[in-house]
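Notes continue from the previous slide.

Worked example: a multi-chain complex. Inputs as given:
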Amino acid sequence: MTDLTNINTALWREITESCGDIRKCFNCNTCVAGCPAAEGSPPLLIRNLVRKVLLGLEEALLEDETPWLCVTCSACEEMCPMGVHPFEVCLAIRRWQSRNDETFIPAAISEIFETGHTQALGQVREKRRAVGLDEVPPTIVKFPELLEKFREMLRNTDIVRDNEYMFKD
Amino acid sequence: MKYGFFLGCNVPAVRPDVERAIRLTMPALGAELVDLEGSVCCPAFGAFPSADETAGLAVSAWNFSIAEEMGVDLVTECGSCYSSLRIARKKLLEDGEKREAVNRLLKPAGKSFSGTVAVRHIIDVLYNDVGTETIRGALKFPLEGVNATVQYPCHTLFPSEIVGFDSPPGRPRMLQELVEALGATVQTYSRELQCCGGAGGFTKGSFAGASEFAFKKLDAMKKETDAELIVVSCITCLEHMDRMQNEMNKKNGDSACAFPVFDYNQLLAVCMGFDPSQVASISTIPRDGLIARITRS
């Protein structure tokens, strides 16, 4: 039996604020049937995540790492017969987890803060020259003054302001 | 036809030969590409959109503002960039509060989002703007007698209301027709529409599960087709289909799975006579044998 003595009755409101209504989900499993990550171990079972949110199972949800397995293919968004947005639910749960436990905050965001990218575009000069391209691509890596403005913008966002120590200049 | 070429992160860093192939083929077919100077990560779904939605939308809007100033639509090969930017644009257009919050963030950098430019995937541009007739007419080395399979980028299919351009959404055909325009025969198989599984956190978070998922697809391709190559049009499909064949061979202790994988523009570039050492030089599964056959060298 699921223990419902310690639940957060406002959990569904916190999460659905940014992913749309999930109350019509009746656990039909369509989102799982078409999901690549449902073949993971442990599997990503979006309908179970929706149950946890609707029942207010806050502790269980905060320990659940399966939302991070999502392939982002969005087949579930196409197929859901109840108009729920399962992929958006997945992202909304990740955001809720990141707000409540900083260890969930993806390292990729500090990489983007530092360089503008998730790859070290400034360190592939030889590889690019070998195929006849400019050594530095015309993205923000080529324009240091723009990168500074980009960081200034990000410093004004909640995630960077609240977790300042994660972001280096 | 003029487009802002959105590079993203992986194409210019990991497979710059794809960037080179796109930069050579598109203008030769009448599709002029301009650089989006100062662009950043789309951002990837696993980055800002997984931590702070407004911050994620601001990063997307940073990219849009560059294209808006130049008055060009964005075109990208990367499926994730395409989907991330399409979804962000929809949210920004539909939610006035979010748009205002994002514009407040952009303002000190002298930027703004107004939603005047669209995001296009390169398959869409190749098929609908360039056209298969123009492509047929530009070939130096048509693919006579070559069997191929195609890998549709999942991010260009679902949700079809936001990202879709092929029709019907459940049975895309544009990439197949583009490959047929090169002279190849495209063979379909039971798992053709299965996504590669390489995007997001699946491979990182559950390597064994993600590998088995890809092996099923590759097994089906081996059993059901005589394909000599796989054609993709997404940097993640390209890297992942290449890498997973290597993983499958390691697991089986052989080298039986060896489909060369090409991004469409790479194959197009080879067929148009561009230098293979520039447009198709980086891969795990060797492509040289097939390239030599195509170019009769």
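Summary box: The first strand of chain B starts at residue 2 and ends at 5. Chain B has two domains: 2-121, 135-294.
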